[in-house]
Specification:
The protein is of the alpha+beta class. It contains 19 helices and 18 strands. Helix 1 crosses helix 15 and helix 2 runs parallel beside helix 4. It starts with 9 loop residues before the first helix and ends with a strand. 52% of the residues are buried.
């Protein structure tokens, strides 16, 4: 639940990161669609999402490390982890600038919180982000950050932290609306700055984390994608690889301050969109150049570069797609048993451990491991939709054709995988798999951890809950009884095949009993049973 203490303690920082990730997940495609500056490569929303995902993961790691202790993380621990996570995970021009904004805030908030410190943190963040950019341009995220800080600074001395962050959010919104009049490329495209829109989403999440009240959403519908154009200074070159640098180069760098200053000067002469953020020996370097090798060599001369990423803009803008060749399926599985089953079917698997959903980086790595030009991605969890979408976008940027089928449960993924045929066309295969997944209703049994109100009534600790399509539909005292009631509810609407996935420790006699129940009551329905191994739920059910 959002923090309501009108301050920014460690829990509120954790909540902020989570809410910001959700907000950017909702707006990622819309932000990508309006990305025209500095390069119209349609990835600003994705880059911001991946940057915040890394920040959120770092904060979660801090909380996990304190779970066995007697004390919770301090605010200083949380904000420093957030800043470090954003730094090492920063993607693209926008993500690198956001990382510096978070680092600037963290440096102040680690020394104390409250309204006065928040004002100073926002001001410091805006100033440090400007210093990190070699040639700041108005009408960008830098302007939005500056105006947000200025608005926060105008709040009354007696105002609380909630009032300060809300003022910053409103100031950012106003500044964002003005960006088309400040930067000609935005005005011609009829859009606001993409990075600025992302910052507004992050500040909106901060408002909710501090005050407990979410601000009204700025945009209700996705933006219309703008034509693929490359912005060069204040000019546009339509799909012209000669209109700007050919490569984006990003790397982490271990180096001292003096070496980094020399690196800035060297890279500034090689290209544009130069942003260098960080400090204390660790930096994130971002630049657009024609000679990617020279940019990397400059980093080697300055210190030790690693996590080097090079993107060819011309290839991205051409949206080239290879002819259908090798195809793979990447599937997220909740247990090792299903992992083996899917692997036998030829899929590349990603294990979702209880309480540890995979990050987008793990999904991207799995797509790379598949070594395929075409990939079908099955997340098998509704909560992974934004993570999977970001991973798909990243893989597409690397030249892989990815189709994301929004499966919400493992049994839907099994149904999709069962009709997968790599020999037919990619589009036909995706349509068939999507149809199979969509025709599969899903359920699971879970044990209630506490007394709570559900759609089926009040449950007590230890009750067996039967969830159908994500909602509690049955409350029972034991697994067999609850499973039978769930099956009857699902089969009342019809069905031809029941899939049962048994969790670790669940007896085979349960499967036999449920098979008999289906056979006796529903003559035309077949049943198939799989062992899921170690998974969250004792029983997963699918009905096709």
């Amino acid at each position: 639940m959002p923090q309501t203490a009108d301050d920014l303690d460690a829990v509120a920082v954790r909540t902020w990161c989570s809410l910001a990730l959700d907000a950017l997940g909702r707006e990622r495609e819309a932000i990508d669609a309006i990305n025209v500056y500095p390069v119209a490569d349609g990835d600003t929303g994705t880059n911001l999402y991946l940057t915040v995902e890394s920040a959120a993961a770092a904060v979660e790691a801090v909380f996990a490390a304190h779970e066995t202790g007697t004390s919770a993380p301090s605010t200083a621990d949380a904000v420093r982890a957030m800043a470090h996570g954003a730094l090492i995970g920063a993607r693209g021009n926008s993500g690198t600038i956001l990382a510096q904004l978070l680092r600037g805030m963290a440096g102040v908030l680690a020394e104390g919180t409250g309204a006065r410190r928040l004002r100073l943190a926002l001001t410091t963040a805006a100033a440090s982000a400007r210093e990190a950019v070699a040639h700041p341009v108005e009408g960008t995220v830098l302007t939005v950050a500056t105006e947000a800080a200025a608005a926060a600074g105008r709040t009354a001395d007696g105002a609380g932290a909630g009032a300060v962050v809300r003022a910053a959010y409103e100031g950012a919104r106003t500044a964002l609306d003005a960006t088309p009049g400040q930067l000609a490329v935005l005005g011609r495209a009829g859009v606001v700055d993409a990075g600025g829109r992302g910052l507004v989403a992050v500040l909106g999440a901060l408002v909710e984390a501090v005050s407990g009240r979410a601000p009204e959403r700025m945009y209700e519908t996705p933006a219309t994608p703008v034509p693929s154009l490359t912005a060069v200074g204040d000019c546009l070159a339509a799909d012209d690889p000669e209109g700007g640098p050919a490569f984006e180069v990003i790397y982490l760098l271990e180096a001292g301050d003096e070496a980094v200053e020399r690196l800035r000067a060297r890279l500034d002469g090689l290209g544009d969109s130069l942003v260098v953020v960080g400090g204390d020996g660790l930096w994130n370097v971002h630049v657009h150049v024609d000679d990617a090798g020279a940019a990397v060599e400059a980093g080697v001369e300055a210190g030790r570069p690693h996590r080097i990423r090079i993107t060819h803009f011309a290839a991205d803008r051409a949206h080239a797609r290879p002819e259908p060749a090798q195809r793979a399926v990447v599937v997220v599985v909740p247990g090792d048993g299903l992992g083996g089953l899917c692997a036998e079917a030829g899929a590349t698997t990603v294990l979702a451990r209880p309480g540890e959903p995979p990050a987008s980086g793990e999904l991207v790595d799995a797509i790379r491991r598949a070594h395929a030009r075409e990939v079908v991605l099955l997340p098998n969890d509704g909560d992974l939709r934004h993570t999977a979408a970001a991973a798909a976008e990243q893989a597409r940027a690397e030249g892989v054709r990815v189709a994301l089928i929004p499966t919400r449960a493992a049994v839907q993924g099994i149904a999709a995988l069962a009709v997968h045929e790599p020999d037919r066309s990619f589009d036909e295969d995706v349509v068939a798999m999507t149809a199979a997944a969509g025709a599969t209703r899903y359920a699971e049994l879970a044990v209630a951890e506490r007394q709570s109100w559900t759609m089926a009534g009040i449950c007590q600790t230890g009750d067996i809950l039967g969830l159908i399509d994500g909602d509690v539909a049955v409350i029972g005292e034991d697994v067999p009884e609850t499973a039978r009631k769930v099956l009857d509810r699902m089969l009342a609407a019809g069905g031809e095949l029941v899939t049962l996935v048994l969790g670790e420790g669940v007896s085979e006699t349960l499967a036999d009993a449920l098979e008999a129940h289906v056979r006796e009551g529903y003559l035309a329905v077949d049943t198939v049973v799989y062992r899921g191994g170690h998974q969250c739920a004792p029983l997963l059910i699918g009905v096709e």
